[in-house]
Fold this protein.
Amino acid sequence: MTNQNGRFGIHGGQYIPETLMNAVIELEKAYNHYKNDPEFNRELTELFNEYAGRPSRLYYAEKMSKDLGGAKIYLKREDLNHTGAHKINNVLGQALLAKKMGKTRLIAETGAGQHGVATATAAALLGMECVVFMGEEDTKRQALNVYRMRLLGSEVVPVTSGTATLKDAVSEAMREWTTRIEDTHYCLGSVMGPHPFPTIVRDFQAVISKEIKQQILEKEQRLPDAVIACVGGGSNAIGSFYHFIEDKQVRLIGCEAAGRGIDTFETAATVNTGRVGIFHGMKSYFCQDEYGQIAPVYSISAGLDYPGVGPEHAYLHDMGRASYVPVTDDEAVEAFEYLAKTEGIIPAIESAHAVAYAMKYAPTLDKDKIIVVTISGRGDKDCAAIARYRGEDIHE
Amino acid sequence: MSRISEAFQNKKAFIPFITCGDPDLETTKAVVREAVKNGADLIELGIPFSDPTAEGPVIQGANLRALSTGVTTDKIFDLVRELRLDVKIPMVFMTYANVVFSYGAERFISTCKEIGMDGLILPDLPFEEKEEFEPLCNQYGVDLISLIAPTSENRIAMIAKEAQGFIYLVSSLGVTGTRSEITTDLASIVRVIRENTDVPCAIGFGISKPEQAKKMSQIADGVIVGSAIIKIIEQYGQEAPGPVGDYVKEMKEAISL
């Protein structure tokens, strides 16, 4: 899907300072070498299976399906991975690659903290130094994850610039990378940023759709009618979509964080409200004002609170291959509670955006239809914030 | 000869960077005029961007202060129109790719030509992506300035060969901001640049003191100073034009000795 210059249609590219160009070129060369290296792939598969607990389950949510009265709903349980989210797939791949490249230090940005925790985990396992940049606002929203990262031996740097959220953490990690390149790999957490990151991260996350395909064929002897996943930068979504892109009968649906609604300024629904721009190393859709100033976005979910979207999603949108739907805070919180009560599964508030759309979509389909919803992470980290949203003041 | 090359004719060029609208556009106008009066050879005008990823804390602050006063690209174009009534030295814009792209590349670059801007510096537009704007810059006679960094190594020749206006040589790793020491072997980089182009080369990032400026001017054709000037503006606010003028004079003298 990626062409030579790292383009997905008009999107993607490498809009970064000259200081970083040789670093991304070196990364691309190393990746192109190791992705076909049997030893690298053997080590990565072993980490996936023995350490992260792959393959993750594809669970038939029978109660939910019957309650909603429409399509059969399967949940892809990325929440059951080690560290509790899909983020570990990408991080194990990148950390192993960085180690092979002779890097000794990982830096990362994090929003909800899931990618930061995953990076800190991989750094601990592989004996690497690790620094995680996290918006100060998010360090408050996700205090437990900050503690986790420190427990795993990482340094957490609260970012106070700009809106002190995910986009500022990305900016600060990029700034840090220009300061120290020689021994440092920037372990980007989503399918965004300059080429080759969108391709590398997608390839490591594509294990999700590879497994879904095998598992659904085993269980149902056919492909699903739709695959639904939440989209911030879009890594779990592209991972869930990738092996179905050529299967045109499978609808691909990305759920964006609409915050308080796409008709308000308090939203993070990039494809629905943004326009094409150039930021954080890529051309894609961004929430921005008429002069190209990046908009301060909002979502209840720290992991989806990002003003851009990965370039491959922008391309899938342009091609009409995937559709991107907005889901509000209210809908996500209701879905969070619904899945907990109906299936005994507490999803991450990010993943709850996908569940929320499935709750609207499934009843419109016949009972012989099949949809897969990716539960990208578990929701333990969100319980205190959701309680507060509901007016209950609990402390972690 | 372009106005930019004239700035480097038979002298070392001193190039101050000023963020437009920090603390307000009237002050920016006065600061530019004082800088010109005190020996600046070329002016780098920053169009503020919400998320300036190549800047350190000082210039990040200037960007946010400027934006909070409601400065826009159009208001900055008007500022240049006024400045061009009396400012005759070359001026270039420094901003981020999205500011140009979002305005409409042709609309932005043709306006640069119309109001008398000589060049454009975009720190997030490397050699590989310059096709995005270079054809339009060529069409309208606006120089798209290339940057070369301490990590450029095998890329220096390729970049230098296609450079226009002047080359912005980044002195150190990292983002903009004052540094007590610059350790990059800049002379070797300049040697490779010279082998590949006659376009002049100015060094920026981390330069704040007259001694540093003098040392850098012995290696290259000019010196760019940003954060040190922004700090003066931050300190003096609307009273900044005088102190900035004094500083420009001191720096210009240091590189002219």
